[in-house]
Amino acid sequence: MDSYALRSVLELPSPFRSMFSFRYFNSLQSECFSGCFLSNINMIISAPTGSGKTVLFELCILRLFSKFLTQEGKCNHEKGVLKTVCP
């Protein structure tokens, strides 16, 4: 991926944008964005401390939550259905 082709936080559904305090994902996050937020592929991320791996995990969680968004941007789910595990 071109190091200058950073993905914008604006590519996320509007209810999720405020989770991030920056405008653009860094190069690692931009390269992995499609795999984390737009697909079901399995991934192993190996990168140095401080490179942005936690944000990638958060994108995977947001992908799960996005399945329950209505057209109006509200979350529509049954209580107790959505669960995530943080290592």
UniProtKB/TrEMBL annotation:
Domain named DEAD/DEAH-box helicase: residues: 28-72
Gene Ontology molecular function, alphabetical: 3'-5' DNA helicase activity; ATP binding; hydrolase activity; nucleic acid binding
InterPro entries from the UniProt entry: DEAD/DEAH_box_helicase_dom, Meiotic_Crossover_Helicase, P-loop_NTPase
Domain of life: Eukaryota
Pfam families: DEAD
Protein name as catalogued: DEAD/DEAH-box helicase domain-containing protein
